[in-house]
Amino acid sequence: MVRKLLRRVTGVEALGTWTRQQLTGVRTSVAAAEKHGKSTGKKLKELRATVAVERRNAAEAQAAIVAQRKEIAALSARLTQVERLADANERLAKLLFQPDPQDIASTATHVRAAVMRSMLRFDPGAHVVIDDVLPEAVYARLLAAIPPVEFFSGGGDGTKLDYRVFSSALAPTASRVIWETFESEIVREVLMPSLLDLFAPALADHFSGLFGPDFAAEAGRLPTRANGRIMLRRPGFTQAAHLDPRRSLITGILYLAKSPEGEECGTQLYRVDRPVAAPSMTTYYLTGDQVSDQAAMRVAFRPNRVLAFVNSVAHGVEFPKTATLRERLAYQFYIKPRDGALANFLRKLPAERQEPWSEMLATHGDR
Description:
By secondary structure, this protein is an alpha+beta fold. It has 2 domains: about 100 residues; about 270 residues, q2cbj1_9rhob like domain (Jelly Rolls, Sandwich). It contains 9 helices and 11 strands. A 6-stranded antiparallel sheet has the order 1-9-5-11-3-2. The protein is elongated and about 135 Å long. The N terminus is likely disordered.
């Protein structure tokens, strides 16, 4: 019996030893697994970091490729424009001339006479139509020197494009010389003072409405300037009744028609039900209760004609898609006070008169 008991004890001890061995093995396996798991997790973390870096590098490379493509496209467009400029310079080279003081003086005399023989009209608002404003040869030279369409800028559907005289944009040399000479020597030195004299009575009323009767006379003595743009309009272009930017005193439009065709594509003048001044510094479009639905008159689009009006005259353009004329060209210029002088003058006005000019006053600051 003792022997049986001893055998049982021995068996239990052996079982315990075996169990302990198994537990030790499990612990060893678990420890190894944990060590392997930590190693794998570290490797996964390192791998994820590497992938993130590669993704950032790929994104940066993609962005660099996009930027390079844009740069190449811009350079290509610039090259195309330079090639067009060279071609235009070659085609227009024959127009180049050295401005002759005698020719300029003769043109100035012609322009003054044209303004003087024209009648200032007050219906539907103060305006004048001046025919044969330039000598025929000068007008023909201006037409010939209009830059090709690729040197005009604009957006939308292509019905409204502009070329600004004295801009920094590329333009054929002949176009730049001829149009800048015209604007500086004829528009600024001759047309501007002649029109200011002609419109003096209407401007007195305009100044009184803008600044008040007590300041109208001083406003009339402000120094002025003029600058303009060539406007190219195509069928489908429409501009509703509007006033030009508030600081403009007189708007002038030289029609650049090449033939009598398209007279119906001139400028519409509207009858305003009550005096209206542009309330902001930008173009102001009148509402239906401010202006008649029907234009009071249409000034025909004719060669070598100037339409000028005080900036209280509502005007617009309709260039129907069905028009036989395919391009409407005109040179528009604004006569306006010099900015610094105007800003200093505005600060003398009562607060309620300054308010509509707040944007300009903020731009120019105290002087």
